[in-house]
Amino acid sequence: MTNGSPLAQKLSCFVDLSDAELAVLASLHARRRIFTPGRDLVYQGQSAQAVYILASGWVCSYKIQSDGSRQIIDIQIPGDFLGLRSALLRTSDHSFEPITDIEASEVFTTDLLAAFADTPRLATAVFWAASRDEAMVVEHLVTVGHRDADARVAHFLLELGSRLALVRMGSRDEYDCPLTQYHLADALGLSAVHVNRVLRQLRESGLVTFRNGHVSIHNYENLADLAEFDTEYLDQDGALLK
Fold first, then answer.
1. CATH fold of 137-234, please?
2. Which of 81, 142, 149, 241 is found 20 to 30 A from 123 (Cα to Cα)?
């Protein structure tokens, strides 16, 4: 069973959470905080004593290069952890910036570890989510290193649709998206001008339209073929751990 939180919805793809496990998960949401765009909620080099669970809004994780350019590592949506790895490494190796107004639950590392000790199946589910996040970062590396611009944009939009569908915030065919072309450029290793050109080509080809904060995928199969998009790495269709 699940409760209403995006994290519970996502973890339920892997583990059929019990009432007791859901109660522990709900307790991790006790300290809610609001953040606005323009200020990092976690910055590179910060000593981490807490992680965050994103409840609403969108965030990007990024690193600043020596020349001042920004590489977006990933986009975080509701149900995602922010800074989970740094809870164990003790220092954050990248920054998190709100893209929209967000609400996030602050979870002290000691409380998170205690929850894992009390509910091992919940710990297993979170480990699954973290492993899935790592698989996405690996796929992003392949995208930037080996896919052409059309395939990069297509793959990125298809992945977002699958992720949002998991937390019931959209479908594989359409979803709201607050990202700008500059966000896509920094995530995909392209210029904003190039992203604009690719989006126009994809729209004119009848594959996908990204306009006014909304993505509409008109021909999923052909777009997936263009991107060589295989959802296996997202592991959203596996059997539940009972």
1. Arc Repressor Mutant, subunit A (1.10.10)
2. 142
Q: Are 102 and 57 in contact (CB under 8 A)?
A: yes
Most confident of 13-22, 27-36, 45-54: 27-36
Please give the residue that has the higher pLDDT: either 1 or 12.
12
Distance in angstroms (rounded) separating the CA atoms of residues 238 and 151? 26
Model pTM? 0.91
Assign a CATH topology to domain 6-133.
Answer: Jelly Rolls (2.60.120)
Between helices 120-146 and 19-27, what is the axis angle to 10°?
70
CA 141 distance to own-chain centroid: 15
- pLDDT for 72-110, tens place per residue? 999 999 999 998 877 676 667 678 999 999 999 999 989
